[in-house]
Amino acid sequence: MKLFGQVTTDADEMFVYFEVIRQLHPNCVLDYGMLLKRMGAITRQAVHCTIQKETRLEGVDICPQIQLPIYHTIYDQIYPAAQLPQKSYDLAIFLGQANPVDGTVLDYLSAHASVILFDADIAEITNYFTKRFSCQSLSVDHRMFGLAHCKGM
């Protein structure tokens, strides 16, 4: 099935996704790429972590071919990739990007989020954020992630 070819199974990505939300306590999160959808999540819980119901979780859907009603329960709002919301977010998540990175997406996230969680193992993304913002390194097992502080939180 094509669906399973799209599912994210990286336990480190899943852990850092939930752990950063837990530690930062953001009011509003933008999940660019909808990692929960791509990992096949059916709730706001995984790897012994939970995203609280009072945390507004919005997603930008980069896999529109996979449509299951449960994602409208997990995410408070879902946007198509061609219609990026013009709102501010406490935290943006930019993980699990398999396609070449579009600089306009990075510009968009930087302009709309106070903090961005990104995959630091992708040099193009790391270079973009470290040249523009104060960044913090996070390591989980053998993976590197980063937090770019764009507007201060």
* Quaternary form: single chain
Reported for the largest beta sheet, the result is:
7 strands, mixed
Strand content: 25-35%
Taken in chain order, the helices and strands follow as HHEHEEEHEEHEHEE
Number of E strands: 9
Walk me through this protein's architecture:
It is a single chain. The chain has 153 residues and is α/β, with parallel strands linked by helices. The protein is built from six helices and nine strands, in the order H-H-E-H-E-E-E-H-E-E-H-E-H-E-E. The strands form two sheets. Strands 5-4-1-6-7-9-8 form a seven-stranded mixed beta sheet, sandwiched between helices. It has a two-stranded antiparallel ribbon with strand order 2-3. Strand 6, helix 5 and strand 7 (113-119) form a beta-alpha-beta unit. The longest helix has 14 residues, at 11-24. It is globular, with a radius of gyration of 14 Å. The model is unreliable at 1-8 (pLDDT under 50).
Q: Secondary structure elements and their pairing?
A:
Blueprint: H1 2-6, H2 11-24, E1 28-32, H3 35-38, E2 45-46, E3 49-50, E4 56-61, H4 71-74, E5 77-80, E6 89-94, H5 103-112, E7 113-119, H6 123-132, E8 134-140, E9 143-149
